[in-house]
Write a structure and sequence with these properties.
CATH class of the domain at 6-91 and 163-241 in chain A: Alpha Beta
Helix content of chain A: 25-40%
Strand content of chain A: 25-35%
CATH architecture of the domain at 6-91 and 163-241 in chain A: 3-Layer(aba) Sandwich
Number of helices of chain A: 8
Number of strands of chain B: 2
Largest sheet of chain B: 2 strands, antiparallel
Radius of gyration of chain B: 22 Å
Structural class of chain A: alpha/beta
Largest sheet of chain A: 6 strands, mixed
Order of helices and strands of chain B: HHHHHHEHHHHHHHEHH
Largest interface: A-B, 33 and 28 residues
Strand content of chain B: under 5%
CATH topology of the domain at 6-91 and 163-241 in chain A: Rossmann fold
Helix content of chain B: over 70%
Shape of chain B: globular
Oligomer: heterodimer
Radius of gyration of chain A: 18 Å
Distance between the termini of chain B: 40 Å
């Protein structure tokens, strides 16, 4: 397997007396979808929050593109090209798609917003993701369906030439058809050369879209394996007992 | 993703939005129409040019406060004390001019600045200490009332004789200047619209909303022409003694503020951030927007507008007295109306103006 774009070595994090991450190793590869699975409280969210710079781990090494880095805050993560799509998507309903995609990082010419340049860039990004379900990119996010919102949130994450995109339960609130659509989009991201990390509880989704599966069990990494080397039962065992075989 | 939005289609879109309950400025405009018809048929003087000019100058102060309030309401906050903030700033203005002999061009900016400071205090309490704005501004509502009493003295009235301040509400542009003003405004509006379309075409974003825009612009200009004509008609009861015609000076003042507010809200990133914080503060925070700063600034802008309104109020009343109560009650009513119409949180300064009238 090629060398990972992002790898974490022996990461530890505790909240007070609770040791949440215990010597966790984790890697993400460019062009690959890595699924992060585990029961509630296994430490998945804490792990990605450490990657996104929201939490700072006590000990552990971050290696990004072969070089050791420190991620002290969300800004460091975005500068490296790590973007996160939250479970609640963090979109503003009362703004249109373009404004949501550029929120906080608007393009400015003089003192005014450069609307036309933002609009064409947003259009290009959505087209690059083969998104054709959105009627107009000037429509308000409030009028979009759940799947379309997810699409906008993902498009926002890839707008910035990002290298690693983390998706927190992207299909949790979606129907069958929309889940399909989002999974296709996730696949597309990886095919475009990004490293994609997906948190999911749905093993069907995981097996459909992932290349690697990382299973966490009570704060430690039970195993990170290639999808083809395991079946669903193996993964369930990893999640519930932490045991390989 | 190309869209072919013909006029018919956008009209259909609009109608389905209305049916779905997104009525926009429609109730305000309809209400205005009904009011005009009812009062027009009940009173013979209501629809005369004289009364229209009178209504304009009467509403001017409230309009300005309301425009400032838009910034706060868009955040989902409220400022109950804006009326009394206007009173305090008006009193400061009068005191500076009459008792300290400051020229108006010094006194007016200082009074606006003090308004901005009052807003900073409110904004700090709301954003930093996280006290609900309803509570904070209810307190400042009382505090400003007291401050006003303190400044003016109980039962006291301070007259103002500065010709420039008085002219704002009581003098008019001459007829020819009125028309020049109208043509300049209409021309600027037309030009800015055309430039926008040209720029979009240049980057390759083609949309067929041009016709719609043309119709809207034409309608606006027609209304503007009508209004200018009405305001340039002689409206003095005794034309030989005093001639009373032309656009009141306060109209350009309001228009400048309106253009400024619209520009900030719709064209700058700060305006976008205001909408974003109002729509989803948590999302805005995660996008790296300084939510606290946006909140505080919005309150500062709001009371800054209130200070301008205070000047207009002083100009209309020729004086300041602690009993701006009537004015303030009127404002409460308007606030309620506006609060309702702003519920969708996607209103522009223009629409709030319509709601107010």
């Amino acid at each position: 397997m090629a060398s990972p774009i992002l790898s974490l070595k022996r990461v530890n994090k505790s909240f007070g007396p609770v040791h949440v991450l215990k010597d966790v190793d984790f890697s993400a590869y460019a062009g690959k979808v890595t699924a992060l699975v585990g029961d509630n409280g296994a430490g998945k969210s804490t792990l990605i929050k450490c990657i996104a710079g929201i939490y700072t781990p006590e000990t552990g090494e971050f290696i990004f593109e072969g070089k050791p880095v420190t991620i002290a805050g969300p800004r460091d993560a975005t500068e490296l090209g790590i973007e996160i799509v939250y479970q609640d998507l963090a979109l503003c309903d009362n703004l249109d798609i373009v404004h949501n995609m550029f929120l906080g990082r608007e393009e400015i010419s003089g003192i005014t917003l450069n609307e036309s340049s933002m609009e064409s860039l947003a259009k290009k990004t959505l087209d690059g993701l083969s998104v054709r379900t959105v009627k107009s990119i000037r429509q308000k996010v409030a009028s979009l369906s759940g799947g379309q919102r997810q699409t906008v949130a993902i498009a926002r994450a890839v707008l910035w030439n990002s290298k690693v995109v983390i998706l927190d339960e992207p299909t949790a609130a979606l129907g069958v058809a929309q889940t399909e659509q989002v999974l296709k989009l996730v696949r597309q991201l990886a095919d475009n050369g990004l490293a994609v990390i997906v948190i999911s509880h749905n093993l069907n989704d995981v097996f459909q879209v992932a290349d690697n599966i990382a299973a966490m069990y009570l704060g430690s990494m039970a195993a990170q394996v290639e999808k083809n080397s395991v079946n669903q039962n193996d993964v369930v065992r990893l999640i519930t007992t932490g045991a390989q075989k | 993703m190309s869209q072919d939005l013909s006029i018919k289609q956008s009209a259909n879109d609009w109608w389905s939005r209305v049916k779905a309950g997104q009525v926009g400025a429609l109730p305000a405009l309809l209400g205005l129409l009904v009011l005009c018809i009812v009062f027009g048929t009940q009173s013979s003087v209501f629809l005369t040019p004289g009364n229209l000019a009178n209504l304009l100058t009467q509403a001017a102060a409230v309009i300005v406060i309301a425009m400032g309030l838009v910034f706060v309401l868009l955040l989902g906050e409220i400022d109950l004390s804006a009326g009394y903030a206007a009173g305090v700033c008006g009193a400061l203005l009068v005191i500076m001019i009459t008792e300290m002999d400051y020229p108006w061009y010094l006194a007016f900016p200082i009074s606006v600045l003090s308004g901005v400071l009052l807003g900073a205090v409110i904004g700090y309490l709301v954003a930093q200490l996280k006290i609900p704005s309803f509570v904070v501004t209810l307190a400042t509502f009382l505090a400003f009332q007291g401050l006003l009493l303190l400044l003016v003295g109980e039962g006291g009235t301070i007259r103002i004789e500065d010709p420039v301040i008085l002219a704002v509400e009581n003098k008019n542009l001459s007829v020819s200047y009125s028309w020049i003003f109208f043509f300049l405004t209409a021309g600027a509006y037309l030009l800015s619209g055309l430039l926008k379309f040209r720029k979009r075409k240049k980057v390759g974003l083609v949309d067929n909303l041009f016709k719609l825009w043309a119709i809207k612009t034409f309608a606006l200009i027609a209304i503007g022409t009508l209004a200018t004509w009405a305001l340039t008609v002689e409206r003095s009861n005794n034309p030989d003694l005093v001639s009373l015609r032309g656009i009141p000076y306060v109209v350009p003042v309001i228009l400048v503020l309106l253009v400024g507010a619209t520009f900030v809200l719709s064209r700058t990133s700060f305006g976008l951030h205001i909408y974003a914080v109002g729509g989803n503060a948590e999302a805005a925070r995660r996008a790296g927007i300084n939510v606290k700063m946006v909140r505080i600034t919005a309150f500062m802008i709001c009371t800054g507008f209130a200070a301008v309104a205070g000047m207009i109020f002083v100009s209309r009343a020729n004086s300041i007295s602690p009993t701006v109560q009537r004015f303030s009650m009127q404002l409460e009513r308007q606030l309620l109306v506006e609060q309702v119409s702003l519920e969708e949180k996607e209103k522009s300064a223009m629409q709030s103006l319509a709601a107010l009238l």
